[in-house]
Design goal:
globular, 3 helices
């Protein structure tokens, strides 16, 4: 939660619109509900999410994007 909050604050300070999620399933729902005119430019993902691994998350993103704009992160 701390890393997610700090990343959110840092990106917002640069004028970036930021959405955060506590788990992969919620993130998938957010991405699905964004609609075609509001796509995500980048999706940051921890290697280990609370409800799935990054590979499963990436595989599910592939059903929404041909080439998901995903950046995986490990540790801090």
């Amino acid at each position: 939660a701390e890393v997610r909050n700090k990343a959110h604050e840092m990106l917002k300070s640069y004028g970036v619109d930021v959405d955060t999620s506590v788990c992969g399933e919620t993130a998938i729902c957010m991405i699905k509900s964004a609609g075609p005119s509001e796509t995500y430019d980048a999706i940051f993902c921890a290697v280990h999410l609370s409800d799935m691994e990054a590979y499963e998350f990436y595989s599910r993103l592939r059903t929404l994007y041909d080439d998901p704009p995903m950046i995986m992160m490990k540790g801090w």
